Amino acid sequence: MALPIRVVVPADCQAPTTWATALKKALEIGKKAQPPASEYILVTHTKQQLSQTALRSHIGVDNAKALLANKVINITEGCDLRHATLHTLPNSAQQAVVIAYFAEEKMMEKIDSLAGLIGIVVVPESSNAVDTWSKRWTHAVHGQPPTAPVKLISDRVVEKALQGLSGTVNLSIGVMHPLDKDQANETLRILRNKGHALEPDKIKSWAIQNGWKPTAADELAKLAAKIQALKSKPPIKSFPDADGKYQRWST
After folding, report:
1. Measured between alpha carbons, how far is 43 from 41 in angstroms, rounded to an integer?
2. Mind listing the pLDDT tens digit for each residue in 46-93?
3. Is 60:155 a contact under the CB 8 Å cutoff?
4. How is residue 201 annotated by DSSP?
5. Chain center to CA of 96
6. Which whole-number Å values give the CA distances from 20 to 7, 83, 237, in the listed order?
7. What is the β-pairing status of strands 79-85 and 39-44?
8. Which end of the chain is more exposed for a tag (fewer CB within 10 A), N or C?
9. Would you call 127 helix, strand, or coil by DSSP?
10. What's phi and psi for 14, nearest 5 deg?
């Protein structure tokens, strides 16, 4: 499985054993990595979740207090854990394993944009809280057989067009540059003109899966939704070599 390794722990997030299971999975990922993980990060929405939820007792009162004070705690020999919220999580880490606790889609999009991860262990806030994220990535589910590799876009022409688009836009920033948006608009309108369906949610997930920042992927999905909603096929005569581009996507 490609890095980062993704594992979902589908147990009740308030159950006493869930934290222990999530931590065990994180340590397994971190110790097997080459080189081993250099840090472990517990991510919750807010600091208050360390003091006002069952997680406080599961981690241990003293450990929770230390994390609240922005200190690291030792979780096993040579391995420390620190805490971050959605607001304090940096844009990158170094050979890190994240435990996403009380996870839902907003949290997972933030974590998806984090560079330098070797593993993500997800404890969902509720049974369906990370359904969209789960459909986006090939991942393991604790206690269940391995999942099949994810195939988000079945239309080969659409996927090839998006691959070409991804090769021309700047994927390193969280918003689409106007020129990149023009290129995306042209690509999507050609596809729509040629009779291909644009599925915004799948396009967004595909973009994130292929290196787009979640916010830029969301812009792309909104553009796809707008073009898909057009009552008639959009004209493409003003686009240079539109038919040639489509022909290349189709071969």
Report:
1. 6
2. 999 999 999 999 999 999 999 999 999 999 878 899 999 999 998 888
3. no
4. H
5. 15
6. 14, 16, 60
7. parallel
8. C
9. coil
10. -95, -10
